[in-house]
Amino acid sequence: MTREIRIISLALTLTALIGTPACSAKEQMVRATPDSTPAAVAQQDLEYAPSFKPVDEIAQSDFRELRVAQVSPANQFNQNLKKPREINAPPTEDGVHDPADEAVKKLQPPKKAFADLPPSDFGNHVDWVKAIDEKKIEPRWDRDNPDAKPFVMDLDIVRPVKASVPDVVFPHRQHTEWLFCSNCHPAIFVPQRLANTINMSLIISGEKCGVCHGKVSFPIETITCKKCHSKPKPADWQPPRSKATLEQPWR
Amino acid sequence: MLNRNTSAWGGLVAMAAMLLLAPPVAPAAVSHEVSAPAPTKQDVARKIRFVRMMATQSKMAYRLEHSGDAGVQKSLHQARDLVEAAQASLDAGDMDGAVAQADKSLELISAAAKRLPANSKEDNQLRYKELLDAVTTYQDSYDSNYKRLVGAKGKAAVGEPLDEARFNDTVAKARVDAGNGDLEGANRLLSDAQYNITKALTVLLKGQTLVYEKKFATPKDEYKYEAARNRSYADLVPRALEQHHPTDHAVELIHKFVNLSETMESKAVKQAKAGEYKDAVATLQASTSHLQRALWIAGVRWSRWPE
Amino acid sequence: MVGNRNFSLVYKVALAAAVAWLSFSAAPQPAQAEYADVVINNYADAAGMRPVVFPHWFHRIRFRCKVCHADLGFKFKAGGNHITMAKIIAGKFCGACHNGKISWTVENCGMCHSGIPGTPTHFVGSTVQRLVAPPYVPLDRKEKRLLDMHQ
To answer: Which of A73, A116, A154, A236 is the most exposed place for a label (fewest CB within 10 A)?
Structure first.
């Protein structure tokens, strides 16, 4: 019993020692011996053609030092790049819940709930629209009646944008699976053509689409641009130019 | 000394092995079905204090006391007795008993409060206004979409998703009720109307795509649109300043741009008054681009500077 | 037997080093709280309670947005609903479900009031917060004397 334990602990020790992080600034030098340099090899007689003496056109030094440097952590690659933080941390470790509160231990860790749900790269790291479409979750439409069906409105609104980014397509279907008409209309969006000014400044500041997106629905990040800006411009699209620009084509 | 207890080291090695292997496994092992730990004295004292406040000093207690409902008043008095009993249990050291009594007292207060009428007059009025706004807006939207679709596809294809007579009846009745002061009744009727018109809109607009292209009928419409757009950016500047806390130098620049945009905007208003709508639109667009720059300096940015 | 003694010393040192190095490298990075959690601290600090942390994800799995935001009257604003315990006990807002029938009752104070004291009202992980807001400083726990307040 003890013999086996000794072997195991020896193995552990060796693993630890061999896997030591690159903190020590040791250099490893591999020195090539004179006999194995190309120049020396060229001098040796070949077994099958003793008279043949190949000419080494490129002069080599007698020995070469191969230095494998160990970089100190102060000079690590991507020094200032923030390391990715743990996503979906359990409540006791998430930085918002107070771990000193005993009841926090009773709260369900999100990872457990998200195990079966389709993943995504932002927000909660769950694709909620896919989850409800694939019936992985069945949230209630009515507080008391689990069988009530939602009013799903299938209406797309296309908002062309001035810049060269793809046009915005707003799909009512995915939104009305979750929301009711009165959540947005008329308080946030007037249901009328050209009655709503929407631009990225408003959205980032938390108005219009930003009332939910960037707070509780998927956030405004570079990977989520294409979720709204989803209709590419036609091939012959030209940006709108003002009269002044058209008269001064050098600009 | 020579006879070291190597089996103890064996234990240590086993522990070390567990430590090495455990970290990726440990968080998953924390289950949320942990039984509640025993409450501390401060927690129980605080809960009793809270329930006592609810039962004796709060506005709700006043409402319950003066509700005129004997059952409700009896529950309230029982709740108060239980709170004092809980305090006595806590003083005697019986923590679990104290918690149970405080919880029961809270339960009694909750049940009593739920028996009273739910909404205050202000709540009802707010809800009435919300519902009326929604219902009238949806009606306008339904009418304009119905007209458009009938014009495009013909009446037979579109049908009659909404029973308009019944809908108008319901809304009229709700207005009458609200006028008489029966806001709860009015809200019920308006909810019903909202349900019906929502259903009708869903059926009417199913599977369609609306393109909101900026095609204006007249230059005046375009001017109005540009003016609203300019105002939306101008309203954002103070919000951006309080959210982003730019440096003093940046604030100076922002003020410069905002002043410039205001000058151009007043120029545009003059041009519009004189009837030169196309020029007014161009001036407004320039004013808006100054505001955009000001917001960019403040820190409201989402990509590189737009073209 | 003599070799045994030196061997054990080597074990001690090696094990200590191995364990220390491995536990250091496996230490968790600072964690990211769950996106869309709402920390509500309108009245909690003044009352000596921890602020409330409302998890959207847990409720989203069970209810669609309409139930709370259209039927129960919750506005789309963190802290903008002015929810008090009295309203909850009367069956409004959270009390519409946390009443013992649909979900657990209000005597479980710590399940909702679970935030770090002093955290201001905000949406965790919101675009505005990440791009904009200065970092908040939680109150020093010792000075707050959360649990000593009611001796």
So the answer is: A236
User: CATH classification of A140-231, choosing from 3.90.10.10, 3.50.50.60, 3.40.640.10, 3.40.718.10?
Assistant: 3.90.10.10
What count of other Cβ atoms lies within 10 Å of the Cβ of residue A127?
19
Residues of chain B in contact with residue C128, where contact means CB-CB under 8 angstroms, are 243
C147 interfacial to chain B (CB closer than 8 Å): yes
Q: Burial-class residue C35 by CB neighbours within 10 Å (0-12, 13-18, 19+).
A: buried
Among left, alpha and beta (phi > 0; psi -120 to 50; other), residue B135 is alpha
Which residue type is seen at A14? L
Contacts for B151 with CB less than 8 Å, ≥ 6 apart: none
Chain C residues with CB under 8 Å of A83 CB are 29
Query: What is the identity of the amino acid at A95?
Result: G
Q: Please say if the pLDDT value at position B131 is more than 90.
A: yes
Radius of gyration of chain B (CA): 34
Structural domain boundaries in chain A: 140-231
Q: Out of B34, B199, B282, name the one closest to residue A242 (CB).
A: B282
- Write the single-letter amino acid at B297: I
Put simply, whether A34 touches B (Cβ < 8 Å) is: no
pLDDT tens for each residue of B211-264 = 988 888 888 888 999 999 999 999 999 988 888 888 899 999 999 999 999 999
CA dihedral C85, C91, C96, C97 (to 10 degrees): 70
Alpha-carbon torsion, ordered A205, A207, A210, A211, to 10 deg: 120
pLDDT of amino acid B46:
86
The DSSP line for B210-234 is EE-----SSHHHHHHHHHHHHHHHH
**What is the pLDDT confidence band of residue A175, given thresholds at 50, 70 and 90?**
very high
Check whether A93 has a pLDDT greater than 80.
yes
> Do residues A96 and C33 lie in contact, with contact meaning Cβ atoms separated by under 8 Å?
yes
Do C15 and A12 touch, CB atoms closer than 8 A? yes
For C38-150, give the CATH class. Answer: alpha beta
Ramachandran quadrant class, A95 (left: phi over 0; alpha: psi -120 to 50; beta: rest)? left
Tell which residue, C69, C66, C73, has the closest CA to residue C92.
C73
Show the tokens assigned to B139.
Answer: 């009606």
Single pTM value for the model: 0.72
Contacts of C22 (CB under 8 A, 6+ apart): A16, B19, B20
**Phi, psi angle pair for B250, to nearest 5°:** -65, -40
pLDDT band at B196 (very low <50, low <70, confident <90, very high): very high
**Residue range B281-294: average pLDDT?**
92
Bridge-based pairing of strands A155-159 and B208-211 is: parallel
